[in-house]
Amino acid sequence: MIISENKGDFALRERIDVNRAYGNLDFPGIILGHLNLQPGLNVLDIACGNSEWTIKFKKQVAAGLVAGIDQSASLIENARELARSENLYIDFRVADALQLPFDNGIFDRISCLYAIYHFPDIDRALLEMIRVSKTGGAKIVITGPSRNNNEELYAYHLQAGGKVKEIAGRDIYENSINSFVKRHNLANNYTQYENLVIFPNINAFIEYYKTTKLFLDNLKEPDRQPFLNKMRRIVDDPQARTIKLTKRIGLFEIWL
Description:
Elements: H1 7-22, H2 27-35, E1 43-46, H3 52-61, E2 66-70, H4 73-85, E3 91-94, E4 109-113, H5 122-132, E5 139-145, H6 151-159, H7 169-183, E6 187-199, H8 202-209, H9 213-216, H10 221-235, E7 243-255
Parallel strand pairs: 1-2, 1-4, 2-3, 4-5
Antiparallel strand pairs: 5-7, 6-7
């Protein structure tokens, strides 16, 4: 049975679901295209969440080894249950991306989608990915928010009087990986994609905003509902036909 959801564990999944439901970008197709999975390849999905991507990877590589790690025990338990429901064997583990529980040189492909900018030591995480990758032909695919991601949302937040106390993922993601690949002289490519998310109504927008780190990390519990009411008044402009956000996604490919 799928266990009860923990809000912190599942907030990212909820945001991704919104991006897919209301966006215009075929993100799954883009990721699979960059990974170029073939039967027999070994794949590691870092910060795999509840396994949506990992299951896709397993179906592509068939008999190849597929593993998924996440620090959240609740997400890993759900991942195992979802894989069992599709009669798929995937090696799911509760583990830290800074200390991967695998031997050297195992994987042909590694994915880390919308997660690395939350890690306390991005360089160490990347070194661990390299360690467990095969030499010659392996590829690492990493995604995260570009520096100009969600400009509209930040503007609404600031207009409502919100603060940004934490360094946002979009402010560290590209710089951190660019710096790493240059220092280690790694072959790489960077592509930016835009997903235009159009919300059908103000309620859908507010529910999305409530799951963002911009909201959760910068507003204390007693202040949240009054702030949401203020955001609702600002965003729900009767002159506007739609509520739009531009999600800008930066995708790195690193070849080994």
